[in-house]
Amino acid sequence: MNIRQYIYEFFGFVIFYSIAGLIFGFEFTIISVISGIIGAFIGKFISKVNGFFFEKIVNYNQVPLKSDTGELNVHFEILAKYKGNQISIWACYTSKNIIDLETLNVLLYNKITSSHYKKIVEQGFVTVEIKLKSEPIELLLTNN
Length: 144
Fold this sequence. Notes:
Elements: H1 3-24, H2 29-50, E1 52-64, E2 72-82, E3 85-95, H3 101-111, H4 114-123, E4 125-131, E5 136-143
Antiparallel strand pairs: 1-2, 2-3, 3-5, 4-5
Helix pairs in contact: 1-2
């Protein structure tokens, strides 16, 4: 669940509900609620047009490197929505310390934006740096 996607719908509902309430008076609850529902649909449309929404990480795999450094190559897929269309982004990083899936979800949810996806489409790849306490990790994101 992407909370940013639902914020558009909520604000659409609140704005249209408030406008209808002010015009017709809040005694006309049915008119206000119908206007709020229309506003939620408009908010849903705006969220589809407006951008990139991170959904979840799938296919999270770890492969040891052939060298004896103890590092692992971690690769995974990011499922997201861009302007209403489902997209898939391939990502990987190499590190001795593996980030657990929940932490990685939170870090990427806050880090990856529509500008990153636009660079992936234009250039074919983009790198994103995540700073952790133990070491910085550089993610390579490519179009899947």
